[in-house]
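Hi support team,

I'm filing this because I wasn't sure whether my run with P61 finished correctly. The job status page said complete, but I'd like someone to confirm that the output block is well-formed before I use it downstream. Pasting the exact inputs I used:
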Amino acid sequence: VRHPAEPWRIKSVEPLRLTSPEERAAALATAGYNVGLLPAELVYIDLYTDSGTSAMSDRQWAAVMLGDESYAGSRSYYRFEAAVRDHYGYEEVIPTHQGRAAESILSRCLIRPGHHIPGNMYFTTTREHQELNGGTFHDVIVDEAHDPAADLPFKGNVDLTKLQQLIDKVGAEQIPYVSLAATVNMAGGQPISLANLAEVRELTRRHGIPVILDAARAVENAWFIKQREPGWSGRTVAEILRKICELTDGATMSAKKDSFVNIGGWLAVRDPRLAEQARNLVVVYEGLHTYGGMAGRDLEAVAQGIEESVQEDSIRTRVEQVAYLADRIAGAGVPIVRPVGGHAVCLNATGFLPYVPREQFPAQTLTCALYLDAGIRSTERGAVSAGRDPVTGENRYPPLELVRLTIPRRAYTQGHMDVVADSVIRLYERREELCSGVEFTHEPSTLRFFQSRFRPL
Ligand SMILES: CC1=C(O)/C(=C\N=C(/Cc2ccc(O)c(F)c2)C(=O)O)C(COP(=O)(O)O)=CN1
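And here is everything the job wrote out:
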């Protein structure tokens, strides 16, 4: 796989510093063996997240200067609203400062204690807000999504039998909505197909259950539909994105992904009554419903980012850079999640570190080894992220124990990808030496992944 030639040239740069091994060892100990607690300046290549870390374009920076900071009815809000309506197709657009704020407001509007929310695999903040409002999340994704080696084109698909069984078990009236992610982050950025989405739409329509999309990386999902789903190769990404949204009743959006911005999000629905309920909560938690926790300049950057995100060369080269990294790593025999997702290469930590027992958190251990080796920050997407079962309090050990190498958009070049690939391959060749993991020294009660601290065993 060749590294793509980007459809842009660099006009502004931010200097990077490579630390010494000694510096990194000291920094990691201070950070409690949680790379998420490292100061960013001690990280050389930061693959912690693609959320809010992408490079904005000169046109987005120019739009920032046009930000209308009026409290009510900002010009920038109407530009933002028009961009969401044009590209996602929902009538009622409600700004929020980022995705989890949209999730919180949607959950407060639709979920009541005792409710059940089916979805194609969990995402941490999405499930958290569902549980905080008394709901129970049920994973109805196809079984293959939990198998890192299953190389299927649409592992984000819903297993319709699982969905029907949940409806039969709890009753449609106990299901406020079906929560669908496009792509599925925790499965490695796996897309859902339009055919499956249409089947979910049909099944839920029969029971009067709404479908709410998590659109954070829906442009990447649209790209995979164009590449992999028969009958769509001749359509534009923009047309396919609209088609995805048409099959849903609303969406929560973290604009910090597809739309390249450093902050921003929105909730969009078709039902004006739900929209009014949500706007009332936005005023309580985010700010007036025409800015929703963003400055006018942020609204402008999101609007411009949406337009750029659906340009074919932009999304193609974004996904191809990830494929380049995956190809180099997999070429050396390193176990990764197949097929490669749109935003990340996911290392299968149990396959990578077979001698580290699950109770010693192999994925967390591997993130530490990657940082020590080359100053690379990656993301634990395994048992630490999965947290504890809210009922039993026991650690959840999901089948996927992954290290996510998450690629920011338009930020790193082929040279950086090669540094990452070389480091991963070097560690894989030394994997026999890595036979003990880590244990908690501090474990927060909520979303422990961010603030946990560990000690090496
Ligand atoms: C599919 C989806 C997301 O990927 C997502 C965020 N994602 C992050 C940041 C993150 C979030 C929670 C974690 O445990 C985590 F470790 C990383 C990420 O890196 O992937 C949100 C929430 O959107 P907000 O971040 O704008 O509020 C909603 N939906």
